[in-house]
Specification:
This protein has 379 residues and is an alpha/beta fold. It has helices at residues 15-25, 43-53, 61-69, 86-95, 104-110, 112-117, 128-136, 162-165, 170-173, 183-191, 193-206, 244-252, 284-294, 298-314, 322-342, 358-378, and strands spanning 5-10, 31-38, 57-60, 75-78, 98-101, 123-125, 145-152, 213-217, 223-229, 234-238. Among the domains are: 5-126, Rossmann fold; 127-240 and 263-279, no CATH class. The strands form two sheets. Strands 3-2-1-4-5-6 form a six-stranded parallel sheet, sandwiched between helices. Strands 8-7-9-10 form a four-stranded mixed sheet, covered by helices on one side. Helix 7 runs parallel beside helix 11 (193-206). Residues 345-352 have low confidence and may be disordered.
């Protein structure tokens, strides 16, 4: 029997946090909640969670979440949304806790900052795709990996032309056919920005070059990702779309949690589809690869500009197709400024190519949000 683990959950009122609490509640012999945090939008729910699980350490907001993440425990699950998860991720790693990472943005924008603080095996991915990759990679050595293959559901607009996408409303974009997620991730899933972030995340987590990470559309969301090995073998991880499985895997690793989620019913006929991505209709993957290849603060700019654009879209201030258009324009301007800085213009906030600091990342994040806002207003 595995020893009982003390768990801190950051973002407990969100989709990931609520499902993590469900896993823990059904496995009291394996896990105990010792800390909860949330952004503050649902204080009554946070208070109810604390009472239900007997948790005394409760935090509201980014600063308090970072402080909570640095406290002693076995596992910190970072389920916060967006760039707000960076400091809590760094604090958890510095404290020596295992990090169950659902907040992909902190790894993507923090890049080397996160990797230099993490000891081998300390970060356990919670994204279903990266959890699948981690499990599939156990079938061979790093040198035997030919490529990683991330699957994408295709979202609510699979098969739509770019012309048809021009009419998309927030209500349509929030209606995901497979997954129940928060508004930011749901919109990003529909534009494939989320998949672009996941490509960068896979590159950083598994140390595989970006040009050896592919994306295929798999509408059924049963195969969560695959690893192709040099001998031609492809290993896939398959399960019904239920985030409780990767959450439980990250909390319990290296031991699995029995009954975490339903398994596939192999007694029933089923068909799985795998389709190429339409890059003309969904250019976000190309933009994300550009940010990932540039490194430095470019991924932070990509992420921050997207968060600003998604907020504007949901508020009716920006058309759907303009989300990725503005993100791309902000990234291009940033890369141009970084190039000028490398040539001697030290007025730029970026230090691409140098030693990245938290201030660099947060400065780039702030600049990108401001610049995106200016471009949105100009439209």
């Amino acid at each position: 029997m595995a020893e009982r683990r003390d768990v801190i959950i950051l973002g407990s009122t969100g989709s990931i946090g609520r499902q993590a609490l469900d896993v823990i509640e059904r496995n009291p012999e394996r896990f105990r909640v010792v800390g909860l945090s949330a952004g503050g939008g649902q204080p009554d729910l946070l208070a109810d969670q604390a009472r239900r699980h007997g948790v005394a350490d409760v935090a509201l907001g980014e600063a308090e979440s970072a402080e909570l993440a640095g406290r002693s425990c076995d596992v910190v699950l970072n389920g916060l949304a967006g760039a707000a998860g960076l400091l809590p991720t760094l604090r958890a790693l510095e404290a020596g806790s295992a990090l169950a990472l659902a907040n992909k943005e902190s790894l993507i924008i923090g890049g080397p900052l996160v990797r230099e603080r993490a000891r081998p095996g300390q970060i356990r991915p919670v994204d279903s795709e990266h959890s699948a990759l981690a499990q599939c990679l156990m079938a061979g050595t790093h040198d035997e990996v030919s490529r990683l293959i991330l699957t994408a559901s295709g979202g609510p607009f699979r098969g739509w032309s770019r012309e048809r996408l021009a009419t998309v409303t927030p209500e349509q974009a929030l209606d995901h056919p497979t997954w129940s997620m928060g508004p930011l991730v749901t919109i990003n899933s529909s534009t494939l920005v989320n998949k672009g972030l996941e490509v960068i995340e896979a590159h950083l987590l598994f140390d595989v070059p970006l040009d050896r990470i592919d994306v295929v559309v798999h509408p059924q969301s049963i195969v969560h990702s695959m690893v192709e090995f040099v001998d031609g073998s492809t290993i896939a991880q398959a399960s019904p779309p239920d985030m409780r499985l990767p959450i439980a895997w990250a909390l319990g690793w290296p031991e699995r949690v029995a009954g975490a989620a339903p398994s596939c019913d192999w007694s029933k006929a089923a068909a799985w589809e795998f389709l190429p991505v339409d890059h003309e209709a969904f250019p976000a993957l190309t933009v994300a690869r550009r940010a990932g290849a540039a490194g430095g603060t470019a991924p932070a700019v990509f992420n921050a500009a997207d968060e600003a654009c998604v907020a504007a879209f949901l508020e009716g201030r920006l058309p759907y197709l303009a989300i990725v258009e503005v993100v791309s324009a902000v990234l291009d301007e940033h890369l141009g400024r970084a190039s000028a800085a490398a040539s001697g213009d030290h007025g730029n906030h970026d230090v691409s190519g140098g030693v990245l600091t938290v201030d660099d990342v947060l400065g780039a994040d702030s600049w990108a949000r401001t610049r995106a806002g200016e471009m949105i207003a100009a439209r």
